[in-house]
Amino acid sequence: MLKVLFFGQLKEIIKTDCLEVELVQGDKQLNTVAMLRKVLQEKGELWNEYLAFGKALVAVNQEMSSDDTALKDADEIAFFPPVTGG
Amino acid sequence: MLKVLFFGQLKEIIKTDCLEVELVQGDKQLNTVAMLRKVLQEKGELWNEYLAFGKALVAVNQEMSSDDTALKDADEIAFFPPVTGG
Amino acid sequence: MSHFTHINVQTQDFDFAHEYQKLRNSSNSDGALVTFVGLVRDLNLQQSVSGLFLEHYPAMTNKVLTQIVEQARSKWQLGSVSVIHRVGQLNVSDQIVFVGVTSQHRQSAYHANEFIMDFLKTQAPFWKKETTEQGDKWIEAKSSDTKKTEDWS
Amino acid sequence: MSHFTHINVQTQDFDFAHEYQKLRNSSNSDGALVTFVGLVRDLNLQQSVSGLFLEHYPAMTNKVLTQIVEQARSKWQLGSVSVIHRVGQLNVSDQIVFVGVTSQHRQSAYHANEFIMDFLKTQAPFWKKETTEQGDKWIEAKSSDTKKTEDWS
User: Fold this and answer.
1) Residue B59 and residue B76: Cα distance in Å, rounded?
2) ipTM of the complex model
3) Which of C8, C60, C117, C139 to probe by mutation at the A interface, max A CB count within 10 Å?
4) For helices D16-25 and C16-25, angle between their N-to-C axes, nearest 10 degrees
5) Which end of chain C is more exposed for a tag (fewer CB within 10 A), N or C?
6) How far is B26 from chain D (nearest CA, A)?
7) pTM of the prediction?
8) Which chains touch B (3 or more CB pairs under 8 A)?
9) Taking a contact as any Cβ pair under 8 Å apart, which residues of chain D between 47 and 86 contact chain C?
10) Which residues of B touch D117 (CB under 8 A)?
11) CATH code: domain of residue D33
């Protein structure tokens, strides 16, 4: 199981702050961030638009990551817009 | 009459913090900082060494100046080592 | 009296004078102390801002701030470093962020402080929503901020 | 509430928190506030320093500091600026100098503050004498400081 978090405007747009995703989906396994992103983008039009590569940043286990970062069971993946603190 | 001030280590070395110098010295007039500097350097060995160009900075009427800055009656000229505040 | 790294994310305000004294007291050999404070401005893109709401990713924030300070320490010889960032609801003129750095030399203190802020702005998981007369509005990241972090490498 | 330039040379200590609040209260539109404080260090060139005596050229000091702040204001868009420099006898860990700058943007505040310190170090008529166990010693100017002012042009 993967734990997926959403923050900032993205969280409001897709009206979701947290969900769990099975690592194994039918006959395939979500081995990378790119594969998880693709599964999530299929959840609807807004998901497709706002989770697009370049639009949402991603962190795996609280480390900034990229599309080819590997995933394993129990990982915490977060998607969020570019940060605006300070 | 010119008012001449000395600061920092220079003041201690030549044991003088302030003196007045006639603008007209015999048949010549101290028209520039360079000419004043030369007259002062003649006051002794330490004066000669520590008032040398490049060793002592100079300000005329509280503005950083150089050897070719013009002098006139009642000017205040200050000689001092490179500054070390802050 | 010894050097420290202090990082905190908090909802409550911070006492600037207290943070300054802690940095100042942490060493007798550091001659330079540089602080940065970010304040809530009343104007942003011509809309009147009445306040800010700051959200963050708690599990990640401390980790990222710690890494940024470590990076700064590897680039410059620093004494003590404090980073405090507030989250939650803030009003106009409230303090948002504090960065304080001590060093033996002023250039290191200036540059490390600016480096920490530049990376905090582009790497630390905080998001600001403005409360304006026209309603709430998430702030967009500025490309000029990304540019600044690239200038450090 | 309005922007100001405050310059002072004084023998008494300054209250850092008070100076910070004055800067902070001077505007609601400045989101960035950078301060620098210079402190008396206990070590300089391996000799143990017990204190510092700071001499200056009173008629010239304010004039030069004012010009430096004007130069900074012509290079960056700044809000308020404070420069306080102490003279006379100081002890280890005493505050020597305060520079505080507010601006709408942090980069301007950082750079203007560093610019003011760099020029203060090479242009303002202050001279430091160290009290050490080996006796008093006038501090020599550093060529690295002159280099820094050249880097700004």
Assistant:
1) 8
2) 0.94
3) C60
4) 140
5) C
6) 31
7) 0.95
8) D
9) none
10) 86
11) 3.90.1170.40
- Judge whether C70 is closer than 8 Å to chain A, CB to CB: no
Mean pLDDT over all residues of chain C?
94
Contacts of C6 (CB under 8 A, 6+ apart): C22, C80, C81, C82, C83, C84
Cα–Cα distance between D121 and D151 in angstroms, integer? 14
**A10: closest chain C residue by CA:** C138
User: Identity (one letter) of the amino acid at C33?
Assistant: L
User: CA–CA separation, A16 vs C60, rounded Å?
Assistant: 19
Q: Decide if D116 touches C, using CB distance below 8 A.
A: no
Please indicate if any CB of chain A lies within 8 Å of the CB of C62: no
- What are the chain C neighbours of A74 within 8 Å (beta carbons)? none
- Residue contacts between A and C (CB atoms, under 8 Å): 74
pLDDT digits (tens, 9 = 90+) for B11-23: 999 999 999 999 9
- Count: domains in chain D: 1
Confidence of residue C44 (pLDDT cuts 50, 70, 90): low
- Chain C residues whose beta carbon lies within 8 Å of the beta carbon of residue D148: 107
Look at residue D28 in the predicted model and tell me its pLDDT: 85
| d(C-alpha D111, C-alpha D75), whole Å | 10
D96 Cβ under 8 Å from any chain B Cβ: yes
User: What would the pLDDT profile of C74-121 be if each residue is shown by its tens digit?
Assistant: 999 999 999 999 999 999 999 999 999 999 999 999 999 999 999 999
Tell me the one-letter amino acid at C67. Answer: Q
The strand pair at A63-65 and A57-60 is best described as antiparallel
Three-state SS for chain A is CEEEEECHHHHHHCCCCEEEECCEECCEECCEHHHHHHHHHCCCHHHHHHCCECCEEEEECCEEECCCCECCCCCEEEEECCCCCC
CA D29 from centroid of its chain's CA atoms: 24
Structural domain span for residue C123:
5-151
